[in-house]
Amino acid sequence: MDSIKGLFTHILTAGSMAIEGQRNMCFSERDYKEDGSVVTDVDKKLEVFLSEKIAALYPASNILAEETSHIFDADKPFTFVIDPIDGTDVFSQDMAGWSISVGLLDKRLKPIAGFVYAPRLELLFFADIACPATFNGADISMPSTSDLVAPGLNLMVPSRVHQQVDLGRFPGKVRSIGSAALHLCFPLIYHGVFGAVESRGTRIWDIAGSHAINRSLGFDLEYLNNHPINYSAMTDGSPAGDIILAGSPERIKTLRDMLSEIVL
Length: 264
Prior knowledge:
Blueprint: H1 8-24, E1 31-32, E2 38-39, H2 41-57, E3 62-65, E4 79-86, H3 88-92, E5 99-105, E6 111-118, E7 123-127, E8 134-135, E9 138-139, E10 154-156, E11 165-166, E12 173-175, H4 180-185, E13 193-198, H5 204-215, E14 220-223, E15 244-247, H6 249-258, E16 260-261
Parallel strand pairs: 3-4, 10-12, 10-13
Antiparallel strand pairs: 1-2, 4-5, 5-6, 6-7, 7-8, 8-9, 11-16, 13-15, 14-15
Helix pairs in contact: 1-2
């Protein structure tokens, strides 16, 4: 596979479908999965749409998606990972902090390409195979913020991360808008965002697209316990093995030294 640019138009179409679906839905139309997370008919509709387009363009690849069970074949050279609506809770409440995330993993399950698209916020991140990521069609000029954490900086976090990790030593502010994929991309474009944290409940579709975008620019995602992300343990939908940190290697080290896991 030389490129995933063939998906570009379909990602934009999915964004339009999502905006239309959000406009027409009522708060009461949302449902809950067994793990307590929110799901809507829009999630399911977009997942079918994107899965069919990917299967038609790249028939030799695996497809892993949040709302539908798929058989994972380790012998296939590539794996697409789809989150049709990342941040479904805020989506169902008519807020804007959600995104569509599609990631591509190679045979070793390394993130190599992906899209993170937030149509309501007009944010589109894209990393193609072996190419640095772009933001809204332009090269990303990395923020010049120092790797030294300061009171004026921000940390992007999920809304319930305080139940899993002690953030008390981070001198800045913690913020959450709903989409894990967006949280993980914000340090790449905003000078005021030092890094991001995601919880142990994070799934492969929450992070694969944004991980590829980070890796293409020299940033990364790692576990708090100093181990790399193990996607092979997540292909069946299992959650991440630990708290996830995102940022430059220096910032990840700073966060690891500063944050501590809460043991209940």
